[in-house]
Amino acid sequence: MALSCTLNRYLLLMAQEHLEFRLPEIKSLLSLFGGQFGSSQETYGKSPFWILSIPSEDIARNLMKRTVCAKSIFELWGHGQSPEELYSSLKNYPVEKMVPFLHSDSTYKIKIHTFNKTLTQEEKIKRIDALEFLPFEGKVNLKKPQHVFSVLEDYGLDPNCIPENPHNIYFGRWIADGQRELIESYSVKKRHFIGNTSMDAGLSFIMANHGKVKENDIVFDPFVGTGGLLIACAHFGAYVYGTDIDYNTVHGLGKATRKNQKWRGPDENIRANLRQYGLEKYYLDVLVSDASKPSWRKGTYFDAIITDPPYGIRESTRRTGSQKEIPKGIEKWEKCPESHVPVSLSYHLSDMFLDLLNFAAETLVLGGRLVYWLPVYTPEYTEEMVPWHPCLELISNCEQKLSSHTSRRLITMEKVKKFENRDQYSHLLSDHFLPYQGHNSFREKYFSGVTKRIAKEEKSTQE
């Protein structure tokens, strides 16, 4: 059936990667710019074609200035499951909405886009000629047209079973493209200062979008590493700040990560990374600090906390303490004597993430967001294992597979309640607490799976 044109509808053409991350990104950005998702817009699945009702073209353009999950957006003029339905839909589209883009002084061109099928040039021309009934009065300009229109055909998701006819056909006026080029221009391969776990550029921008990072925000990363997440947030105009327990990483010292380079250079540091992209003015500072014992005064400082904590695989999970330290509890918050030099101790994953949630609940402004990665052992994962806090509401939970038996989940939470002292230990009363402690053995389970895979591969080669 053709769509009714009574609503202001737009067609999003989505990229076909990080599929689980797409919907939370678009929802977060629409919320940031004053748009809203309707209940009928919740089930897109893996399709690259999404129809949205957006209040205005300005919001649509703002959306595309941020998204890395969407390729393009079009003002939808018609839609059908066959050419006949498409043409009928176009004939019902209000002429007064078409006229501003089709008058005699304008120039235009029509493009054909197909998903999961390649058309010949003759087939494309045939589809363009079939649109002659539209009231185009301007001149065709293939190089620099004022207006671009597109026919988009969807041939499904199965490359091994391509249908003769498309499942859906869309026609719309191109509005804007997304920010897919940021993935290449900010690629870690081209970055001045990198480490073993530097975050992929595309995922960094997705995290910043999930966190609704905007101009003049203050964004914090308590496990800053080489600062990849700070770069993405600074690109969107936020002032960035971070801490890390590793002195050498914070100061750009020690062995280099790059192949054929033994030691890091004198200007390999986080500030230099932001300078590389013209973002140094957004750099506040990065300090050597232990995330388990934050030294902040009580207060709300941050609009967003965007971070990728260590999982104990390529980077160790560490905190400061004493070899004679009493069991973790309320006493851990007592201050050490000034003369005490703390040693590095292991830091359980469950403790790390619960500390992170408490810190976010204390220091985020109301409405501020916490975005972080949670490693999971897939065979044992349940939603109850996601850390919980009374001041934070879960917004989204997206999976990225790491191996056949492990994955990490991008968790986005929003502060909805003012922090009170009693909230610090509320997790002990939560049903989530005991299941989540299972993450403490994530490292052992990860390497157990690697060992089994290697043994299986060796057995198959011997046979």
UniProtKB/TrEMBL annotation:
Residue ranges of domain tRNA (guanine(10)-N(2))-methyltransferase TRMT11 N-terminal in the record: 9-180
Annotated ranges, domain Ribosomal RNA large subunit methyltransferase K/L-like methyltransferase: 190-320
Keywords of the record: Cytoplasm, Methyltransferase, RNA-binding, S-adenosyl-L-methionine, Transferase, tRNA processing, tRNA-binding
Main subcellular localisation: cytoplasm
Enzyme class: transferase
Pfam families: Tmrp11_N, UPF0020
Catalytic activity: guanosine(10) in tRNA + S-adenosyl-L-methionine = N(2)-methylguanosine(10) in tRNA + S-adenosyl-L-homocysteine + H(+)
Subcellular location: Cytoplasm
EC number assigned by the record: 2.1.1.214
GO cellular component, one term: tRNA (m2G10) methyltransferase complex
GO terms of molecular function: tRNA (guanine(10)-N2)-methyltransferase activity; tRNA binding
Protein function: Catalytic subunit of the TRMT11-TRM112 methyltransferase complex, that specifically mediates the S-adenosyl-L-methionine-dependent N(2)-methylation of guanosine nucleotide at position 10 (m2G10) in tRNAs. This is one of the major tRNA (guanine-N(2))-methyltransferases.
Family recorded in the similarity comment: Belongs to the class I-like SAM-binding methyltransferase superfamily. TRM11 methyltransferase family.
Protein name as annotated: tRNA (guanine(10)-N(2))-methyltransferase TRMT11
Source species of the chain: Pongo abelii (Sumatran orangutan)
